[in-house]
Amino acid sequence: MDTPATMPFMKHFSAIKDHRVVGRTEHKLFDIIFIAICGSIAACDDWRTIHLWAQTKEAWLRRYCELPFGIPSSCTIRRFFRAVDPKALHAAFIEWMKEIHAALDGQSVAIDGKTLRRSFNRADGKGAIHVVSAWMSANRMVLGQLKTEEKSNEITAIPELLKLLEIKGAIVTIDAMGCQKAIVETIREREADYCLTVKENQPSLLEDVLATFEEAPEASMVRHTTREEGHGRIEIRSYTQISDLSRIRAADDWVDLGSVVRVESFRFTPDGNTMETRYYISSLSKGIRRVAKAIRDHWGIENGLHYVLDVTFKEDGSRIRKGDGAENMSTVRHVAMNFLNNARHMKLSIKNRRMAAAFDDKALEEILGF
Fold first, then answer.
1. From CA 361, how far away is CA 177, in angstroms rounded?
2. pTM score, two decimals?
3. CATH number of the domain at 95-307, out of 3.10.129.10, 3.40.190.170, 3.90.350.10, 2.40.50.100?
């Protein structure tokens, strides 16, 4: 059995404590996790297809796994992921990411939630799982995730997720639901900057931000404009930053508030033109280009993570729901996503990288970094 030194994830995932009953288990904990991750990379989206793929790749898997009793059945894989502690799996994931990602100085980290639509279980009275993820835009990698029972619980889940991550030097972006004083305080405690959307859920703050842009002198405004063309449309974004916070009545309640930002987006398409205005608060008092990039990067979590999970990994259609299976499979998908996104030298789409990994052992090893 080979254990490449270039695989830190092996170190962290093999360190998960095995709580299964001694003497009643045949398959090694790490073997099952490794099979699931490799299967997910190789275009398998449920326990049955992961098992079928593993059966055809047993000789290859034995290079990296012990497999004392051969390939575990789909029932064994399913039961394992229903029962394994999702917190332990998630902790291993986060420690792996801490080891492999570079320093985050100036990089954007987007926080957003996604509902696993078919993870509800009426028989057990469980609603659909909502997962809050941290997305590093520059490397297109998931830094961590945390489950909540409902979307409204994002407000309490986000600080807990931030406390688990190493985000020193990053610019954290969150939509309007995350524009909360406790979240701002946690971000600054973690030595990161923030850029948060302001909407009607913070009415007094929004009122003051609007007044700032209406009343502040032109000389106090710093501007930056970007233009993008593609797919038959032109989009122009005008960014305005003001560091004079005298009109923000509760400015001191938002830890280290440095500026307010307005973004006016103009979109020109063959079907018509649209204009949208959004407002933000930020701990950055200057550097409009950095703020603009962070705001733009935030949408990468929708296009680069949520969309790919739904379309390529078919997450919204997954019927894995019993026990902790849905949450643990979500972590497995995120691990697979990180490996696939890290293989950018393979000039293929994520879908085709998965297909290459399914058919070609060398392609899978290349994605895994062996």
1. 44
2. 0.90
3. 3.90.350.10
